Amino acid sequence: MIAAVLPKVLSIEKSQRMAEVFALLADPNRLRILSALAQQELCVCDLAAAVAMNESAVSHQLRLLRTLRLVSFRKEKRRVFYRLQDQHVMTLYRSVSEHLDEPNDTGETLPEGCLHG
Fold first, then answer.
1. Does residue 27 contact residue 58 with C-beta atoms inside 8 Å?
2. Angle value at C-alpha 26, between 116 and 29, nearest 5 degrees
3. How far apart are CA 85 and CA 88, in angstroms?
4. Between β-strands 42-43 and 71-76, what pairing exists: parallel, antiparallel or unpaired?
């Protein structure tokens, strides 16, 4: 039985990299930025307005998200537009969001701010 599980257990290296991604996502501001980018590509100034943060703070968060390849960017003249890196990031974002909206065993959704039932 365990022989079937062992080959599928994450390597230490991959588990460390995954932990880094989840740690980066453990910030409400970064998640709000991702939620805006899940809607459409945005420049820093529009993104800052969408998440009610200053442009400098948004740029800092975007640098962190770029480091782990969660967002990418393109330049158009003097403006920089950000988007989710790829469909995997979109799927991760949507899966967690939908999971939180699902009813628990009692048929209730979890209240905001509550991580356990």
1. no
2. 115
3. 8
4. unpaired
Taking the domains of the chain in order of start, what are their residue ranges?
A: 17-98
Of residues 48, 27, 47, the one with CA closest to residue 38: 47
Spell out the residues 6+ positions from residue 44 whose beta carbon is closer than 8 angstroms to its own: 55, 58, 59, 62, 80, 82
Domain 17-98 has CATH 3.50.50.60: no
Residue 99, classified by CB atoms within 10 Å of its CB into exposed (0-12), middle (13-18) or buried (19+), is exposed
Strand order in the sheet with 71-76: 42-43, 79-84, 71-76
- How far apart are the C-alpha atoms of 14 and 87, rounded to whole Å? 20
| Gap between the Cα atoms of 89 and 30, Å rounded | 13
pLDDT tens digits along 47-103: 999 999 999 999 999 999 999 999 999 999 999 999 999 999 999 989 989 998 988
Positive or negative, the CA dihedral 58, 113, 39, 65 is positive
